[in-house]
Amino acid sequence: MTTPSRALKIAVFGATSAIAEATLRLWAAQNAQLFLVARDRERLERIAADLTLRGARGVKSFVADFDDPSILAPMLAAMEAALGVPEVALVAFGTLGDQKAIARDPEAVRRTLLTNIVSPAVLLTALAERFEQAGRGCLAVITSVAGDRGRASNYVYGAAKGGLQTFLEGLRHRLAKSQVQVLDIRPGPVDTPMTAHMSKEGFLWATPERVAADILRAVGRRRTVLYTPWFWRWIMLVIRHLPQPLFHRLNI
Amino acid sequence: MVSPFAPSTRHLAWGRVHRCTHSVSRPRGVAEARAALAARGHRSLLPYGLGRSYGDCCLNPDGLLLETRGLDRLLSFDAERGIVHCEAGVSLADLLVTVVGRPAPDGGVWFLPVTPGTRFVTVGGAIANDVHGKNHETAGSFGHHLIDLLLLRSDGTIVRCAHDENADLFRATIGGLGLTGLILEARLQLVSVPSLWLENEDLRFEDLEGFFRLAEDSRGWTYTVAWIDCLARGRSLGRGIFSRARHLNDRRPPPPAPRPPRVTVPFDPPISPLNPLTLRLFNTLFYHRLGRRGRRVGVMPFDRVLYPLDGLAEWNRLYGPRGFFQYQCVVPPDGAFSTIARLLETIARTKQGSFLAVLKTLGDRPAPGLLSFPMHGVTLALDFPNRGQPTLALMDALDDIVLAAGGRLYPAKDGRVPAQVFRAGYPLWKRFAELKDPAFSSAFWRRVGEEETAPATERPA
């Protein structure tokens, strides 16, 4: 194992998500220094202990509900106390929920949009200030292929993720003159607790470990939009361009 | 509330003989595990780790599986005492790249006290099958090194089990095939070794007597195992290669950590390349591979010695779409020679030989679990391509020899043992049945533990 003279500094928001945890393990194996935020204290503590034993050079954790606007300032203060401005900030929180129930429940629509677009956009606005000043680093955000076109099966979640994609596109435009990388990570369906109820038969399903490896590679290569696994770029290209009469006949 | 279970036909045992449908959930913590218990309805549960059990003790057809790979966090490591505390879905491979190799206070390094022939098993699976390794003579089985565990029962309670707390349930859970509840966490005592390098010797022996002689001569060696050419008959019956190894006692830099397998068998070949012709070829070549001297000495990283098959991912697919059976028995030391000879003669006569026939002596430490497989004596492990009835008939014939000798079969390897054969080998099975969690079950258990009288067993096709 090669230990870099200076540890990579990484902040992860939504650290208990399965994709975040898999990605964190890869960074831990590189002896990174970590700052983790999640809602569930017990799970966060377990993950922090695990990452320490897997090689992380120091793990600080912070318990927060991302939908609570008052948490932003203390959370970022804790991050700066732990790491300063990190090299990578991964924004990984989100909720999928049961679209059938959400689509008919205005309150559920509000909560889905709050967690999946409003809260990440607020957090990213605050992070972008710090990264822009530092003039370096990577803002990596997990969106979804669901954001590429509104579909009956998940358009509320998809609307939030699509909005977040547009937000990231604009943020990237704004930060183009600085050295800050803005990475939009668009996974296809991943075998995680978010999708526990869905059958995983068929080749389109990916594991969190696969997605995590793709994320590390995309961060290292300064990519802007990552479809993971790779074939989703082409599947979504087709789906985006299907003419409406045909699209409306599909049950997707 | 969305159901935490999803249908799956992908969950198989390592032998790939049995095909069935499960509903599967992968809890990532206690809360999610409890939610899965609450959603089970009337269906039975079974934990599922990395699917390295060969037969049907890891299958619960038309029932529920709780995948334990979501519970795979290392919680703490006491470097002074060598105690690792982790969730039950952590694999031995995970331990090998994290805590194994860290310095111990006596100047050595910490190492797994017991490991089976693959590192891709979970800690929970190693407990539930009370696995043993090539060092059984001195180290006993996995359960001997277990300090305590946390067990989630189907009523939602979490029970700590150790030698001094819920000792009955502790003994039932070690080797308990996942039937006493879901193991959430465990603490394991590692062992200090001089280094992660092994000095090893491979020695050819010309008959079964040669094996017993070498086993006797190898008491100073930590790890011993022998491969047998199971097609050899007559004077050559039981010929093979004896491998022995021990930790090297010098201060060279540690070997690189074991790497993930580089080659994968990508699909089931429609016709298995493992057929009688290649079998004969392989066995003959393997027997003669040590050249004229019949002996090879070397120094290797531990993983090359202990996990020879881990370099080829999904090698089990080589047996083709019908899969294969593994047959592993142990017989007591008295009369072991003639029993093993009879087993080998029976196999050689049917020409259904096995590529990997493994013979090994086991030590005399009393077993830690009610259903632990290891006992003092000699164990023989074989795999047979599934050719249907002739294969089943051969194993029935082997059963008779094992039973007459007072031996028993290894549930982790089994997919067909009749109830009466299992019960004769495991006299404590009734005590176990009382301690088992009523909501947990498996195909194996329904076959051997639930029938009132000896049933006409249902046979896989």
Task: Report what the structure shows.
Chain A contains 9 helices and 7 strands, in the order βαβαβαβααβαβαβαα. Chain A is of the alpha/beta class and 252 residues long. Chain A has one domain: Rossmann fold (3-Layer(aba) Sandwich). In chain A, 46% of the residues lie in helices and 15% in strands. Chain A has helices at residues 18-29, 41-53, 72-83, 99-102, 106-134, 155-174, 208-220, 232-241, 244-247, and strands at 9-13, 33-38, 58-63, 88-91, 138-142, 181-187, 225-228. The two termini of chain B are 39 Å apart. Chain B folds into 2 domains: 75-193, Uridine Diphospho-n-acetylenolpyruvylglucosamine Reductase, domain 3, CATH 3.30.465; 197-416, Alpha-Beta Plaits. Helix content of chain B is 24%, strand content 24%. Chain B has helices spanning 30-38, 92-98, 123-128, 136-139, 167-173, 208-217, 276-288, 302-306, 336-350, 389-404, 419-425, 429-435, 443-448; strands at 6-8, 22-25, 45-48, 64-67, 74-78, 83-87, 109-111, 146-152, 158-162, 182-189, 191-193, 197-205, 223-228, 240-247, 263-264, 295-301, 312-313, 324-331, 357-362, 377-385, 408-409. In chain B, the strands form 5 sheets. In chain B, strands 16-12-14-13-19-20-18-21 form an 8-stranded antiparallel beta sheet, with helices on both faces. In chain B, strands 5-6-10-8-9 form a 5-stranded antiparallel beta sheet. The longest helix of chain B has 16 residues, at 389-404. Chain B contains 13 helices and 21 strands. By secondary structure, chain B is of the alpha+beta class.
